[in-house]
Amino acid sequence: MKHDFAGIGMTSARTRTRMVERLRQQGIRNEEVLGVMGNTPRHIFIDEALSHRAYDDVSLPIGLGQTISQPYIVARMVELAVGAARRDKVLEVGTGCGYQTVVLAQLFKTVYSVERIAQLLDRARTRLRELRLTNTRLRHGDGFIGIAEAAPFDAIVMAAAPTYVPDALLQQLAVGGRMVFPIGNTEQELRIIERTEDSYVESKLEKVRFVPMLPGLA
Ligand code: SAH
Prior knowledge:
This protein is of the alpha/beta class. The protein has helices spanning 13-25, 31-39, 71-81, 99-105, 118-131, 167-171, and strands spanning 60-63, 66-68, 89-93, 110-115, 136-140, 153-158, 173-184, 188-195, 200-208.
């Protein structure tokens, strides 16, 4: 489901190739994910003043106190998410600039994404429209609540760190589904929860650093 982004200024092919090489060295193995990361324009999501750093392995400010996640962490979370039993629906919590939304849109049939900050969501909408993606559903909402009407989700990917696992999201996870999320306060770690027929199985992964997941709309 790789999207054709031709015609929207896909310059920087070289820097994207270099980014993919670096992701490989950092341990990302899933070729499909690497292919999609190499195909996705990241520079258009970043302020012109900073766009020369778009493909560096850093997080960058996107306004309103938020950041676009570094390429490695996007690749890592998405790689874990595509290990779900099915790839029909994914829920992204924290649309931010919309970059990860675009990555997910090339790997899942439909992407639902919630963002609590209206202004960020508006900007993300404009960009996704420019990219002519038709399988993304953006919503101004609170990730602690999720999107019950669209559930169950085969994967849930959270781009902001809660201090506890939101119960609504556990309920909205499909059997065979995977939730990938950072958790914690000053010390955070990446975790996966897999839902089986009759339980939830949690695994703890590496230490990470995300913005906090906050309740309510802004
Ligand atoms: N994937 C995004 C990450 C942005 S940072 C990107 O690469 O641009 C995390 C985002 O989560 C922020 O935009 C923040 O506003 C949002 N967020 C924090 N708490 C939230 C909540 N409860 N519901 C929805 N979005 C939330």
